[in-house]
Amino acid sequence: MKDYAQLWLDYKEKRENKDCEELKRFTFSGADKEDVIVKNASAELTRGLAAMLSIEPVIVCADTAVPLEETDGEAIRDNEEYRICIKDGGIDIAAKSGKGILYGVFDVLRTVAVEKSVKAEYAEEKRVRPSEPLRMLNHWDNMDGSIERGYSGESFFYEDNEIIVDERTKDYARLIASTGINAVVINNVNVKQAASYMITDRYFAKLAELGEIFAGYGIGLFLSLNYASTIEIGGMDSADPLDEGVIAWWKDKMAEVFKKIPTLKGFLVKADSEGRPGPFTYGRTQADGANMLADIAKQYGAIIIWRCFVYNCRQDWRDRKTDRARAGYDNFMPMDGDYHDNVILQIKNGPMDFQIREPISPLLGGLKKTNQMLEVQIAQEYTGHQIDVCYLIPMFKEILGFKTYCGGSKDSVADIISGETFGSRYSGIAAVTNTGNDFNWTGNYLAGANLYGFGRLAFENGLSAEQIAEEFVRMSISGDKEVVDTIMEILLPSREIYERYTSPLGIGWMVTPATHYGCSVDGYEYDRWGTYHRADHLGIGVDRTDKGTGYALLYNEPNASMYNSPEDCPDELVLFFHHLPYTHKLHSGKTVIQHIYDTHFEGYEEAKALAAKWDTLKGRVDEEIFENVKERFGLQLVNAREWCDQVNSYFYRKSGIEDEKGRQIW
Ligand code: GCW
């Protein structure tokens, strides 16, 4: 027995497909049987079918072809596309590379695990092409074993500044590859202390080993880079991207790194952000910094992913002109077209920082000549720390579906990050991951739905939040219809419930500073991070219209006009864009203050109802899973009660307006 869960790969015995003759014979068309990925795919298929159905399949490789060289996103997607059909009494999985075969194998295993009929599923050829070329997880793991914003134990990559490579590493690769993830950044974007030395001899051997394991599952290894490596490990006094000495140092360094870690695919960089060094120190632009590294990395076929989370984190609260929401746009938009073609800008979904509700970053749909990658967060930093249940896939569906009006018919965020809107060389989606070394990987067992769901959605944007939740539950918890329905009833509304008992109408924050769990209405109000609600006795909200910071106008029309007008702005974002009196009437017909009272009381009651639903599963799901989630619900209810009471009391005392329904407000 392993001391960690197998989640959706636990391959419990299944009834459906027991007599399916086709599952006894597989052809992998296009596969090279010497390819490690193909070997891993065969091993996985054999293991899964043996455990679920006691079937030992015969696997034949046919029509061996050479995979395409992955010099752009299209080639990556061509290699990863797969087709499955029933042929000559067996199952044929066809692809241009081992990766496609591997994804096809996981498709078959999923069909068996959720107990769909294999015959029906593949009666007609099923063809799946990944929606995004790069589907990536970003670990914020530190080398001392801690995880920044980690809520599920310590890192399984590091302990005491050493890299761990063991059986769990391989199981991790299997787990995420099975969802469709093809890239991983294994260290925190805040690269400090030992992590700065990842690109030195101290860690090469272990990184090479790790990279091999990932490569065997089609996962590219990436490292976060310390922008000031020339200073911190090179002993130089500059990190100026235009300095000859700095450039020469990086040339030597990259030659060494790519030689020692042959599977390495590139780097992620957080520069000039929250105290991290960057090109601004030398009066250079973000493009100067990114291009310098990219030009050197190019000869190794590598990519530089450069984060757009650049803002002034030392804002004076009296300064009403500076707007953190504008910062990403203001810093990156002027150089659209200047970033070289192996640079990808990684853009957080919202302009602030992973709040429960934010508008879409205006860089998405603003930038037209730049490779782009969307960054979301499944680590529940602001969404309940994997204590509170918060299934995030419905939010991600909204983000992907957002129409940017950047021109043409393919103008949604999903279109942009698939590379199709602008014919970008590279593009994709990344999630700050929620994993750690807890037995269940994600703290709250139900948070596994976000890990599973992120990968599945990145591979197939067309899947619904319902389909994904159902797959997760059937594969990882139980196939019993009532259990499945009950857990889906918990997962699906959980994001909106969390939103209701926390911060209202898109205003965000109001969280306890530093930890970001629990309510503190004024916690960030007089702080330096640029995250205000601007509440006084008359009203609340930030004026980001043409009369305020002008942020609303950064969108393409008609979004700009919609957000700029308090009448047209959607309720759920109205306080993000407008400062409004408490008596302002929303589209819902309620006043702002009544909305605050109602949603908080309702959100708490709804959270209680979710916990009660979970209680009905006692004895019907694995005891360890039951107790884990039950314990978390206990804490969630305390949290929801506190949010409800604090927010309602705060705004009652600020506004002096009574609750229409006369409920208890302290
Ligand atoms: O707001 C912040 C988080 C930091 C994180 C940062 C980022 C890794 O609170 O913990 O640093 O976002 O995204 O870089």
Walk me through this protein's architecture.
By secondary structure, this protein is an alpha/beta fold. It folds into 4 domains: 7-128, Chitobiase, domain 2; 134-461, Glycosidases (TIM Barrel, Alpha-Beta Barrel); 464-489, no CATH class; 498-542 and 579-655, Alpha-d-glucuronidase, C-terminal Domain, CATH 3.90.1330.10. It contains 20 helices and 17 strands. The strands form 4 sheets. The chain has an 8-stranded parallel beta barrel. α8 (244-260) packs across α9. The radius of gyration is 25 Å and the shape is globular. The mean pLDDT is 97. Bound molecules: 4-O-methyl-beta-D-glucopyranuronic acid (GCW). The site of 4-O-methyl-beta-D-glucopyranuronic acid has 9 residues, from loops.
List the defining traits of the structure above.
666 residues; TIM Barrel; five-stranded mixed sheet; 17 strands; 36% helix
